[in-house]
Amino acid sequence: MNLHKFNSPLKIAFLSFVLISNVFLSCSTVKHIHAEKPINTHNKKIYTQQKKIYDLEKMGIKLSNKFDGARLNNVTQVNDTMIAVSIYPENAPINNSAFYAFKIWSTNPKITYVQFKYSKKYSHRYIPKLKTSTTKFTPISNENVFFLDSIYTIKLNLTKEPLTVSAQEIITSTDTKNWYSKIISSNPNLVHYKTVGKSVLGRPIPMLDMYTGNPKNKDIVVLLSRQHPPEVSGFIAFQSFLETLLQNNELSKIFFSKYRVLVFPIVNPDGVDLGHWRHNANGIDLNRDWGFYRQPEVKAVTKTIVKTAKKSDGKVVLGIDFHSTQEDLYYTSGTMEGTTIPHFYDEWFSAIDATFPNYTPNEIREDSTQPVSKGWFLRYFKATAITYEIGDETPRSFVKAKAKVAAIEMMKILNEK
Ligand SMILES: [Zn+2]
Predict the structure, then answer these.
(1) 330: domain range?
(2) Bigger pLDDT: 14 vs 201
(3) Residues facing residue 104 across a β-bridge
(4) Choice between 319 and 18, residue whose per-residue pLDDT is larger
(5) What pLDDT was estimated at residue 149?
(6) Looking at the chain, which terminus has fewer C-beta neighbours within 10 angstroms, N or C?
């Protein structure tokens, strides 16, 4: 349209309209999505953990929470051979994701019993994983676990070498960065790094933008993890899934010639490093904020997805959010008609099922009314979405093997699409 044909007032009016509509467009990149209001924890005080070394002088035992990912709120001596550790959530109400992590050592070798104490309403959830400076995290053996007076108690052989006792393997934001940095350097033409925003406490929210050639018009798959800090088994699945996509074989070459993958490996870095049970540094459940965008982490991730899709004329076709719960299961959407890949769930699960004859995946297929990522992908893009849940104690070798098959079968289905 040639503006010179307008007379002055009309021209100003037209330019104002263009200006206003551009401002409107750039402000409204992420629209509000209707969902049930979550439990309000906005005004619930955060219980800050005091970082220190607890010195039980008489017993010659010390404990520490002075490291990223630690959670230990108090230590007391019960008797000559027993101590109690108190573990509190960051704030409440909160799910019973009773995460703990501390180091313990003694001046002289000795056997010590450790009781776990939680505030009311909460109970022991995770089997302790033990690690020294030379060993990997390994679940404690059954013979060293007791219920004394209905309290979860463990028996430890202490030495002067610190023993890490943790609810799950500790994978901090630094560990995560070390992992994805290697992925980026080994796949320089495929994996493009971007910091998409900052957490409440200023930690970066990383994204790996994966594509070959020109990303324009490519359908988009979104992968995310660690909205909930202790859900490490889900993160281990996520790592194996991602590494399988990058195996550089024929299947993945075809996949990346057709698709762009936006990967958010750590959505809640503050919660992870602070040893939180579930929430971010504001005491909010991030997977109840998709649609409201009150938290900077969710705001950054959703805005990036929406803007990236818009800029490249790409369509978000699939979203997979990796979590952990008591057992392996998939939360899927009840609505399938009119979605991006209506046949995906049935094809995907039956292919995974066929590979592991002794394993039957549990699926809960319903539209969520809560503001969770799965519902957001469905409502915002009509996209097929899954919350991929791994059991807290599912053997890690199986977690990795299943995620590998899940990635291969996803690529097969999408390559055919
Ligand atoms: Zn979760």
Answers:
(1) 173-416
(2) 201
(3) 63, 163
(4) 319
(5) 83
(6) N
pLDDT at residue 7 in the model: 41
- Judged by DSSP in three states, 110 sits in strand
CATH assignment at residue 58: 2.60.40.3120
- Å from CA of 45 to ligand 1 middle: 22
Q: How far apart are CA 238 and CA 376, in angstroms?
A: 20
Name the DSSP class of 245. Answer: H
Q: Is the distance from CB of 72 to CB of 103 less than 8 angstroms? A: no
Instruction: Please give the tally of structural domains in the chain.
Output: 2
Q: 3-state class of 401 per DSSP?
A: helix
Residue 84 tokens read as: 């109690």
143 and 183 fall within a common domain: no
Domain boundary residue, one of 166, 187, 203: 166
Q: Looking at the structure, tell me whether residues 311 and 292 fall in a common domain.
A: yes
Looking at residue 368, its pLDDT comes to 87
| Tens of pLDDT, residues 3-58 | 333 344 444 443 443 333 333 334 457 888 887 777 777 777 888 899 999 999 99
CA of 232 from ligand 1 middle (Å) equals 10
Q: Report the separation in Å between the CA atom of 374 and the middle of ligand 1, taken as the mean of its atom positions.
A: 12
How far is the C-alpha of 412 from the C-alpha of 252, rounded, in Å? 9
Distance 156 CA to ligand 1 centre (A): 30
For residue 120, what pLDDT band results from cuts at 50, 70 and 90? confident
Distance 71 CA to ligand 1 centre (A): 18
Q: Are 177 and 249 part of one and the same domain?
A: yes
Instruction: Render pLDDT for 263-304 as a digit per residue (tens, 0 to 9).
Output: 999 999 999 999 999 999 999 999 999 999 999 999 999 999
Euclidean distance between CA atoms 267 and 395, whole angstroms: 24
Q: How far is the CA of 389 from the centre of ligand 1 (A)?
A: 8
Q: What is the CATH number of the domain that holds 243?
A: 3.40.630.10
Instruction: Compute, in angstroms, the gap from residue 406 CA to the centroid of ligand 1.
Output: 19
Residue the block writes with tokens 């560990």: 175
Tell me the two tokens of residue 212: 């070959």
